Amino acid sequence: MIFEFLKQWRRRRLRARSFPKEWLKLIQRHVVFFPRLSGGDRVELLGHVQVFLAEKRFEGCGGFAITDEVRVTIAAQACLLLLHRRTDYFPGLVTILVYPLTYMVEEKRQIGENLWEEGTVSRLGETGRRMGSLVLSWGAVKHGAADPSDGKNVVLHEFAHQLDFENEAADGVPRLSTREQQIAWAEVMRSEYASLRAADESGIPTLLDTYGATNPAEFFAVSVEAFFEQPRALRAHHPKLYAELRTYFQQDPMEFSAESFTEGQPVST
Ligand SMILES: [Zn+2]
Questions:
Q1: In angstroms, rounded to a whole number, what is the distance separating the alpha carbons of residues 222 and 210?
Q2: Alpha carbons 42 and 210: distance in angstroms, whole number
Q3: Which residues are within 8 A (CB) of 213 and not within 5 positions of it... i.e. 6 or more apart?
Q4: Where are the beta strands (DSSP E) in 26-152?
Q5: What is the distance in A from the centroid of ligand 1 to the CA of 161?
Q6: How many angstroms separate the alpha carbon of residue 211 from the centre of ligand 1?
Q7: 162 CB contacts (<8 Å, ≥6 apart)?
Q8: What whole-number distance in Å separates Cα of residue 111 and Cα of residue 30?
Q9: Tens of pLDDT along 8-62?
Q10: How many angstroms does the Cα of residue 256 sit away from the middle of ligand 1?
């Protein structure tokens, strides 16, 4: 109880601190969506960035040096997911590991009932429920921040997984406030996930990255990328999915998105 009170007090003080000018310049230079946010959202976001940077540890890997540019570019994008909601700032996450470009991992992947494929694969990012850490490639982070409407953003993707973990399971369901919301979410996600899997199997072009057909957790992460980067297209092609995400995030990215999309446009473009 007292710990919770002190934590909230400390966070309020961090949010109220004046934001370092150098950091602001870095965000304006690297995070394209930032200047498009409303004035109130920009203030809220910078407050969250102060808390995020005070609480999370960054570690460079593969000879990579962590700079303020790296820290604020990651923090500003991650904190977009926190706007307008009560948040505990990705409570399961302690450390963010950053590699210069892609990094290689040993992976064992099931490709058939009794068939496993093993090998070295390159990754742009990853996180896990019990890891306490999140791994990112700086090359992918920079690319994601610079192009806010290609539907790909490794920071939004990995931090969406962190939101998914907030109610324990990594099942594509974040913490939802009401029973009605949980029921609606389960229904919409089940049918949207099934149709992405079906489209993936038959090779039909999809707006959502077919990596989302891997499992419900990846479906959620991929949907979050599309929600923030291609909101108009997502709303046109998947109105129910868009509505669930809008209720959960309590924000409408159509208000600040740089996406160019006209109604009736085919998904493959
Ligand atoms: Zn993922």
A1: 8
A2: 32
A3: 193, 196, 197, 200, 219
A4: 57-60, 95-99, 103-112, 115-123, 125-127, 133-137
A5: 7
A6: 8
A7: 90, 92, 93, 127, 134
A8: 39
A9: 999 999 999 999 999 999 999 999 999 999 999 999 999 999 999 999 999 999 9
A10: 25
